[in-house]
Amino acid sequence: MPVPVNPFYINMINISTDKEKLDVAFIQNFLKDIYWAAGRTIEEVQITIEHSFCFGIYLNEQQIGFARVITDYVVFAYLMDVFIDEKHRGKGYASILIDAMMKEPALQQIKIWRLATTDAHFLYEKFGFKPLAHPEKLMEKVV
User: Fold this and answer.
1) What average pLDDT does the segment 86-96 reach?
2) What is the pTM of this model?
């Protein structure tokens, strides 16, 4: 006979694309100190949110992570600013977040997904990301 689960010990995880639910101060507080977004202001974070398809991950209604996609919804998408708050890492929440993004109905037509990472290759490989087949074809301009 199964043991009943005590509801007080269940962590309720929710993924939302509702920008109104995002805790912009929480997002900016994390991003301002991380290597890829160091110094990003709250105003800049708000602009990036306004112009991206965003995902918040919530534990018991409190935001614990974030990610955003820049896309044309058909050909190309770039995954950015993916993070889980340090207190909640190592519990699989990043995988839950990425899985929700890859299954999002509005993003199913996209043919090319890209991202940049220094230290999370293992995470993205689980979702089919791999090194560029032809990196010599890509260029960039950094200002």
Assistant:
1) 94
2) 0.87
